What we know:
Strand 1, helix 1 and strand 2 form a beta-alpha-beta unit. This protein is α/β, with parallel strands linked by helices. The strands form two sheets. Strands 3-2-1-4-5-6-7 form a seven-stranded parallel beta sheet, with helices on both faces. It has a six-stranded parallel beta sheet with strand order 10-9-8-11-12-13, sandwiched between helices. It has helices at residues 13-26, 41-48, 66-77, 87-96, 120-134, 145-153, 179-185, 208-219, 236-245, 261-267, 282-289, 320-332, 335-351, 354-370; strands spanning 2-7, 31-36, 53-55, 81-85, 104-108, 139-142, 161-163, 194-199, 225-230, 252-256, 270-273, 294-297, 312-315.
Amino acid sequence: MKVLHLISGGDTGGAKTHILSLMKELKKIIDAKIICFIKDTFYYDLLREGINIEVFPQKSRMDLSVIKRLEEEIARENYDIIHCHGARANFIAMFLKKRIKKPMITTIHSDYRLDFNDNIYKKIIFTPLNAIALRKFDYYIAISDEFKDMLVDRGFKEDKIFVVYNGIDLEEEVEYVSKEEFLNRYNIDGEDKLIVGIIARLDLVKDHETFIKGAKKVLDKRKDVIFLIAGTGKDEMRIKNMVKDLDMGKNIHFLGYVEDQYSFFNTIDINVLTSISESFPYSILEGAKLKKPVISTDVGGIRHLIQDGHNGWLIKVKDYEALADRLLYFLENREKIDFMGNNLFKSVENNFSSKSMAKVHYKIYQGIVSKGGN
């Protein structure tokens, strides 16, 4: 079986982790290739991992010259399925579909109506274009049951939607620097402090405002805690000004983009996610790999992993008071950090491995091909 994956190539964070984890396992059982449209760190990182990847460069999102080249590639290599990821790939696929007679599938990694909320121009132009493009696909993979329900509610055919939760390779050894070395990199004194971290792009959908408000309530009662914010994005200046206005600069540190994310997870004690919308985020799975308990908003499929008081906590969207309460609980019950972190690792190990994720993808591909793509 031959499957061609299409993705923008400018992807970072969870999207990159998903593709890397999936392709490393898929290449063991099928002939899988990626074509991306931007030559950036995504391309070089996957190339180093031995993934079959090629760049068909675009001058801009609206550059459709790659469609002819993709058509020729698909005809020459006789791929069985074309699998897309993200708005740029979906847009290209909308035009490509008219030229090829191959089943096309796309993975729904996020709520497509919220993807461009941080940029008014992109929201006006690319959100509706992506919504139109999505209607053209033959099949869909939703990252959670909740995302499948979302698609069905929006009129997508239920029998064309599969659910595959994200998975991560827990056997692969990861490299990271010591806690001391990581903090020294940013001139942060973390001695005798509980370290709470969030790693996510600084966009409105990630709702760092709730993280900061929760931190403020904690710091009003305890000073033996620091907060690390890793990531960059359109909402960065607003969030930084908020921290400055609240005079929290001594306890909240902005790290910018952190390339070695496992050094970040090794450093923190508590992993936090305050998103308004998620599918099944890799930031929780990556933290679990280093046995870091999580406090997360109850969005997407996260509830299928997190059990309150066992391996972390779930809070309602924008509920900064609940976030503060859970953090204060950890401050007063330090032994629960290791307890819940170990439990989270075991939960991921048992249910969300990259091997199982790839096997489910393979079964989906087999089913589609056996039906002739219909």
